[in-house]
């Protein structure tokens, strides 16, 4: 967390021990190769473009690994974005219909269908007019899937190219 280079150092020694997978694509359990500390990690690459980490004690890590019981800190995308909002600043998007924005709106509405345009605007660091338009766009499923397929190919082929996609 933060742009001071400490996060890069930490991430360099962090290995992924277990990915949550499924709907929670952002969530994994990481372990420091040097000191063996376990971390709950949310890799938020759409809106804040940060890794959020929570220190876990050995008992909590064991529960994740053995029983698949995860702490709920980063269990929904809304929670992850709230944490992002409290710690850092959102990315600015050149394209007001960037896939990162539309996909996020779609995920937030799947998690909590009654979420309002104002709440989405707040989480994404955009205006309510903008979030209202994104909500309309996220309803256009067919169009969406074409975009998403293209996006996945870019990501698989170029790794971190995805971070630059649709961003300043
Ligand atoms: Zn360490």
Could you explain how this protein is built, in words?
The protein is α+β, with helices and mostly antiparallel strands and 168 residues long. The chain folds into two domains: 6-87, no CATH class; 99-164. It has eight helices and four strands; from the N terminus they run H-E-E-E-E-H-H-H-H-H-H-H. The protein has helices spanning 6-12, 58-67, 77-87, 99-111, 117-124, 128-138, 141-158, 161-164, and strands at 14-21, 24-32, 38-44, 50-56. A four-stranded antiparallel beta sheet has the order 1-2-3-4. A hairpin with a 2-residue loop joins strand 1 (14-21) and strand 2 (24-32). The longest helix has 18 residues, at 141-158. The radius of gyration is 17 Å and the shape is elongated. The two termini are 20 Å apart. The model is unreliable at 149-168 (pLDDT under 50). It binds zinc ion. Zinc ion binds next to loops.
């Amino acid at each position: 967390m933060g742009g001071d280079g400490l996060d890069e150092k930490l991430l360099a020694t962090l290995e992924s021990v277990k990915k949550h997978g499924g709907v929670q694509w952002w969530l994994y359990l990481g372990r420091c190769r040097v000191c063996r500390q376990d971390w709950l990690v949310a890799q938020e690459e759409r809106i804040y473009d940060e890794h959020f980490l929570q220190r876990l004690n050995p008992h909590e890590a064991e529960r994740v690994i053995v029983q698949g019981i995860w702490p709920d800190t980063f269990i929904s995308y809304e929670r992850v974005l709230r944490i992002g909002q409290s710690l850092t600043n959102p990315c600015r998007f050149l394209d007001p219909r960037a896939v990162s924005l539309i996909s996020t709106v779609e995920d937030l509405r799947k998690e909590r269908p009654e979420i309002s345009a104002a709440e989405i605007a707040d989480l994404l660091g955009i205006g309510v007019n903008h979030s209202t338009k994104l909500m309309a766009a996220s309803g256009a499923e067919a169009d969406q899937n074409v975009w998403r397929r293209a996006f996945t190919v870019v990501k698989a082929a170029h790794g971190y190219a995805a971070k630059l996609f649709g961003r300043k």
